[in-house]
């Protein structure tokens, strides 16, 4: 048995309101680079389902920039470290350099891919110039009294550099080695968020929160003109040049991306996300970053909004040609649905309340159209789905239970009205999932609740209060299992819940069953309900025969080193293989027939694995703390 990585469906860029989000594209116009949580993602532009993840940073990442050669990436984080690494081979780190005692906001390469300037929010200094291969100093960054937000190096000789700061000034440098030349003040009266040299080196542009755009001579730093005064009505957070140096593009908090002509100083194209002019302002649609990839025949522009969505903008078209969505925060729950409908869909929920439906074949993620109005407001605790429909159900720590309809299509939507839960949800399960009368079970900290699998879900009967603190739930047909902090698994038979009869649970006699050695954290029935897998807080998995006489099938699934967070069985009649995810960041695939036969995907997700599911009998999907979804090929 083997497990190999097949694909990474990347997390969305990490964004902060009122701060620029750097995007970088490679010289061939094939990939973009951005920071997301503690990782850097390199993503194919034409097929966003193809991506590479760099995970060597140990703190929140902030920026990633391709070298002009296209062979390396320099990335920074909030601790002030810059790492230079290979982006063509296996991602080997070439160097790690401590730049400042604080957050790195931006990085720039020189045209020879030899020197780097990194800037940010330091204490003794706000930035530094180094060689990319050794970290030796090649100048100093000075002249600012507040954090530096952006840096750019002139791509041709004589070398020049410019930095933009919260102190409202630009500083111009001569190099190399780089040294202070002049401070440009009085052009901006608020924070300066972006600056960039044109590819031919003739011009320098700066943008800021005062909504102004200034052009300067790229060789001397002398101000030429202010353009587009009053056009943008919000802070301008990003700027990028076209490859011909005749145009540049800006991204603004007014929800617009605009292309500007240098010669006429006028905008030639405007895209407004979130609806046409005059529609109500939408905070998630604020544009916080932009890049104009070179060497592309379609002149594609890529922007990122505050929600982390990547917008594909082609000049001459009024709307984005594609919007790439995903998660920005760690994925906390997942489920699979639609397999029986021929449309396998991986539904995930995250820490910030977002729910995404991933096409298991293409890797495209769909977001509920009404998520802003009808979605969850925080941590999605659990997801569940029936077998015969395209609907899923989500429960979150806003104490609501919601139906997600059309989850297997391109336009899922939340139901109009959620069900209000009496307590904080812990787990969800669907009993009789393959029948015409499925029943939704909701486990809270105090009770097990019964709801219809409808939109909206309606409560049925009275809650069941177990005599122990239940922490895990699973159901298959009329069989229900609860796991608890009492280090035991309890089996129940479900009755009622059909034709108006109130549902009830009758506990089965499994008193002689050997208990797990730690609190039960997750449960999963095998496809036919023959077995029940129980994961514990100690990292061990017990497999039980789920019918009388109850017995331990195997206790040898014990390779995890931390809490088991999720379990899923392969949809095969032999009920042999199961996948598990853990806080130890690994994904394991196990065999019932051969308990000692297992395979491991080590370090599958930074900060832990929180969801696993099977697509057929040979593919596993996983999601976790890095906000990404990963596809694993299982060879038997």
From TrEMBL:
One Pfam family name is WD40
Gene Ontology BP annotations: actin filament depolymerization
Q: Which InterPro entries match?
A: WD40/YVTN_repeat-like_dom_sf, WD40_PAC1, WD40_repeat_dom_sf, WD40_rpt
Instruction: For the region Disordered, give the residue spans.
Output: 9-29
Gene Ontology molecular function terms on file: actin filament binding
Q: Where are the WD repeats?
A: 54-86, 185-226, 229-270, 324-368, 557-592, 602-636
Q: Which Gene3D superfamilies match?
A: YVTN repeat-like/Quinoprotein amine dehydrogenase
Domain of life, source organism: Eukaryota
Q: Where is the composition biased (Polar residues)?
A: 12-24
Record's GO cellular component terms? cortical actin cytoskeleton
Query: Which controlled-vocabulary keywords does the entry list?
Result: Repeat, WD repeat
Name of this protein: WD40-repeat-containing domain protein
Q: What is the species of this protein?
A: Lineolata rhizophorae
